[in-house]
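Ticket #4471: structure export looks truncated?
Reporter: QA, pipeline team
Priority: medium

Steps to reproduce: submit the single chain below to the structure queue and open the exported record.
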Amino acid sequence: MAHLHDLTKNQTLVLDALTKWDGPASAYSLLDQLRAQGFRAPLQVYRALDKLIEYGLVHRLESLNSFVACAHPHDHAHGLVAFAICDTCGQVDEFSDETVERRLKGWAKEHSFRLAKTTIEMRGICANCTAQ
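Actual output as written to the record:
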C-alpha cells in the first residue's frame, strides 16, 4: 500500500474529496467537485481512482458504479471486502468476515479456481432507515 506522502497531487485531491464525500461518489461527481483544482477531464479522475484502488485506499462499488474511500486502509491482508449499502440513505458500511472468506477460498481450492479478489455487496435498508 502506498503511503499518503507517495500519492500524486491528483490522487491526493481525489482521495480527499472522496473521504469528505457523504456516501459513494461517481467519477463524474468527483470531476465536478474538483474542477476548481484544475481537473478538466474524466480520465484524470479515473487514473487517480485506479491508482487509489491499487493502493487499497479506495473501493469501487460495482452495483452503484461509484467509489468510496476505504474504511480500513490498513487491513487489506484479509482479501475479502464486503459492503452493506442502504438503498434509502446511501450509507455504505465496509467489513470483512473470516468465515465467509474461508468458505469462498475453500470452494475456489476445491474447484481449482485461482481467486484474485472477492468483493461482496449487500443491498438493503440500514438500521437507521428501518427505525424511521
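Status: closed, not a bug. The export was complete when the record was re-opened. Leaving a note from the reviewer for reference: The CA atoms of residues 91 and 113 lie 33 Å apart.
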